[in-house]
């Protein structure tokens, strides 16, 4: 049914969507909590209208104002910005950014050099697995290495995912702090001309890298089958170039070229050639101690848009905004459930508002789940904020 819909129907449908389905109440509560101690009105909202007209520095005081603004402007896309020391407006050049969720933007186009099923704007169930891995690794890292708790995962609307961390410590992190978190999650480096983009050194691996590899290992065989990383001469060549040791490289090349083209078989053979070689040249293998791990990471580890994370006032698409090109809702999902998400079951405005659509019931049900997921994160954030405010009040009483 998707073919029957197009962008020209949005002006008619969006007002109904914003009134009936957009979770206005919980959205305002989430933004208020994430803006505290500043009022909700100090938060920048930005709208993209029809024909790419762009409105920045909008703000609201409460849900009623949000509803009025959405009806009046009917944005095709809704973005969220930073919290200022004053109500944001175009004229206020002295406004200072005080806080902002720590955000992550992962987009499948950044995987174009490794994914083989799709390129650019395309996405399918096969390459969605890269997003599943990214989500699991980043979520675990944020919780276990940084101690963050209020983490919201959102489908970007087309081919990626966004993550919003609302913990007070994350919101008030300065630019160098944000850059440090982004760098911590950045293992793949170097541009198009660099063949081997991961270097883990030769010392024992950091816990965070070991944990990432455990996640990757759950999906790696399936990815080899889906993506066929090693099946053609070109792809095999790319992998061989990641082997820094010339003798090993030519041994691997000889063994793999004469094999059937399935990547899973070739990968197993590569591992066994590597293990034999490492055993025989035990005093000389520091450079390739983690070669297998490095290649897995280069294929599968999250590829972040680091500028989005580093920037203090980077605008990011709001949860439950509609993607103007696909009509899909930016649904909130649970990180543990990313692997079960089916792209065609993600609600779209067209099937949500069309009772006769065959996807209507399924999309409505998934929309309810997404709102419930959003509520859960917001309720726990409100609790954490209440505790923080009480602790702050106690500390000030002591003095
Ligand atoms: Zn694909």
Automatic annotation (TrEMBL):
<keyword id="KW-0240">DNA-directed RNA polymerase</keyword>
<dbReference type="InterPro" id="IPR014052">
    <property type="entry name" value="DNA_primase_ssu_euk/arc"/>
</dbReference>
<dbReference type="GO" id="GO:0006269">
    <property type="term" value="P:DNA replication, synthesis of primer"/>
</dbReference>
<keyword id="KW-0808">Transferase</keyword>
<dbReference type="GO" id="GO:0046872">
    <property type="term" value="F:metal ion binding"/>
</dbReference>
<dbReference type="GO" id="GO:0003899">
    <property type="term" value="F:DNA-directed RNA polymerase activity"/>
</dbReference>
<comment type="similarity">
    <text>Belongs to the eukaryotic-type primase small subunit family.</text>
</comment>
<keyword id="KW-0862">Zinc</keyword>
<dbReference type="Pfam" id="PF01896">
    <property type="entry name" value="DNA_primase_S"/>
</dbReference>
<keyword id="KW-0479">Metal-binding</keyword>
<dbReference type="InterPro" id="IPR002755">
    <property type="entry name" value="DNA_primase_S"/>
</dbReference>
<keyword id="KW-0639">Primosome</keyword>
<keyword id="KW-0804">Transcription</keyword>
<keyword id="KW-0235">DNA replication</keyword>
<dbReference type="GO" id="GO:0005658">
    <property type="term" value="C:alpha DNA polymerase:primase complex"/>
</dbReference>
<protein>
    <recommendedName>
        <fullName>DNA primase</fullName>
        <ecNumber>2.7.7.-</ecNumber>
    </recommendedName>
</protein>
<keyword id="KW-0548">Nucleotidyltransferase</keyword>
